[in-house]
Amino acid sequence: MNLLIMGLPGAGKGTQAAKIVEEFGVAHISTGDMFREAMSNQTDMGKLAKSYIDKGELVPDEVTNGIVKERLAKQDIAEKGFLLDGYPRTIEQAYALDETLKELNLTLDGVVNIDVDPSSLVERLSGRIINRKTGETFHKVFNPPVGDYDENDFYQREDDKPETVKRRLDVNIAQGQPILDHYSEKGLVNNVNGNQEIDIVFEDVKKVISGLK
Ligand code: AP5
Ligand code: MG
């Protein structure tokens, strides 16, 4: 199964992706996670990415297209399939992905678009906490870690500051529609209501994915 998950920043792409990976065994390819890993390793690519991410801007297409192509070419993808999260984010990236999939002889089975009311997203992002050891994502109010937890075991993303979130939302709203139109023309888009509780969203996501092919 080869899938894309789309949605505005904070829509719940990463949250649903973790559940999809567990249920369907596909490889999770999150460009945001790849950039954050490169940033923490302070590679040249990480330093470049940081200069865009800290401002809420998109990393240049040629960099992003390159890392996705490299990842999709690895052997495990042909075997277990993939779930792309946060890519493509511009129409040029969508065209580049079409080319890459053709070259690698892969086909896209479906796009899960998590539809959310943008007014809820600042609250979701400002309350997001991530476990330092496991990388698991939680929310202080909507999805708190079980039991008593030590706040020091969790961190907040640098780009979840309100001023950066505003820019991320503006950028993503502007870029998103042409990408959805592109995949709608191919009959691949499935909308899921993301304004529901996490587990209910996942029930809907599962129905969509199980109905593909
Ligand atoms: P990226 O990491 O992809 O960030 P994003 O798209 O802004 O999305 P987020 O990861 O913030 O949100 P999410 O939808 O995964 O939500 P989550 O599940 O965590 O990209 C970061 C940056 O990297 C970009 O700004 C850009 O600079 C760069 N970049 C990445 N890809 C790029 C590309 N292709 N091209 C160029 N640049 C690129 O949930 C959020 C919170 O809400 C959590 O706390 C969660 O617990 C909670 N939550 C989730 N679902 C629900 C629910 N249903 N109800 C209540 N709370 C919920
Ligand atoms: Mg994410």
Automatic annotation (TrEMBL):
EC id: 2.7.4.3
Gene Ontology cellular-component annotations: cytoplasm
Enzyme's top EC category: transferase
Location (main, coarse): cytoplasm
HAMAP family, sorted: Adenylate_kinase_Adk
Family: Belongs to the adenylate kinase family.
Protein name: Adenylate kinase
Organism: Streptococcus urinalis 2285-97
